[in-house]
Design a protein that fits this description.
Largest sheet: 6 strands, mixed
Helix content: 10-25%
Strand content: 25-35%
Number of strands: 22
CATH architecture of one domain: 3-Layer(aba) Sandwich
Low-confidence stretches: 1-24, 269-278
Mean pLDDT: 81
Strand order of the largest sheet: 6-7-8-4-9-10
Radius of gyration: 25 Å
CATH class of one domain: Alpha Beta
CATH topology of one domain: Rossmann fold
Structural class: alpha/beta
Length: about 425
Amino acid sequence: MPLLASGGVQRTVPPALEDDVTVSTASPAIVVDHLSKHFKLPHQRYSTFKERALHPFRSSSYELLRAVDDINLEIGEGEFFGIVGRNGSGKSTLLKCLAGIYETTAGHASARGRVSPFIELGVGFNLDLTARDNVIINAIMLGLTRKQAFERFDDVIAFAELEEFLDLKLKNYSSGMAVRLAFSVAVQVDADILLVDEVLAVGDAAFQRKCFDQFDKLKAAGKTIVFVTHDMSAVERFCDRAMLLERGAIMEIGDPHSVARAYNEINFGRLPGGVVDPHRAAEIQAAWFESDGERVTDIDHDEPLTLCMEVVFHDDISQPRFHFHLRNDSHHTVFATSTDLHPIDTGAYRAGERVVVRAQLESWLVPGRYFLSPTLARLGAGQGEALDVRMNLSALVVAGERDFDGMVDIPHRIEIERQP
């Protein structure tokens, strides 16, 4: 029986763990057994050796930060597993423990197969070397042989779309170009398990679309992927299961849609202590985008677009108000609408009824990433008195060329009149 060493990811899988380990239906690729990672935060910090020498008897007390606290988990081979949570919930810390970057405080983690971390893209890049040299060096650092690195060089550069900048030193790259290059190298590594931390946010809209396509291919190839993100639409699109962390502990695990809902509830204070309020009069169940009647997560910039929300009523409600807000990556509202702005009868609903509300529009959106935030309110409710609010519940990538600044591409024409 192989033993697991605390403080890293080993390449063996132990026999069955205790009953409280969450089990996937597939044979486990990753096993986490009572894993904890704590940090000591000293009350008194010394910035120089001189300070420490002059004040040797100052308090050495500290606070204990339980970044990850007693996590039990199994992830099956070929599973696409999502980890979500607010900032500071322990997502990235857990991923770094799985990657062996952090030594665990207690418990164990094990992985079956070769692990490739997509955590700190570009670590190991030398800014004084060209992209050509960095690709070869980084590929070898990630586990490829020298021969494999040279064989896959053209594929790396083609995916990153940086053919014109091969002999440019990395210090002259933009941050977006460097991350694209790092991602392109990482996807060429022959790994069984990929640990992914927010990499779908890299690059422009067109490159993000390529990232989505690449993850579809990795999923189809049966790779085991652990995916940390704040993007709930990506969780629902890719993941077989998902886990919600809060203050280092598992709050919910299972169906991606349910976990995404719980994540949004935590963000807006409707899950105090992890308990859903059973007396909400109505709630938004889901939101999504459609184009020509089909659900979409990406479109071309000139395709028609429909904003959608699904609402379930728990009490009898008459004439509810439905609102849509569309925001870009910079969190600026680029479009907003409401049934208040249209002379329509929104209806009367009994407890248990459901309704899907759609707002159809011509898409004038410039290429980029957009987030849909639906809101539900009673008739006559004032500002801030919503029945339900779901910020950034769904995401959309608009592809295309963008040559000028602007939040929307409004149809227009330009005329020039010569004056006498």
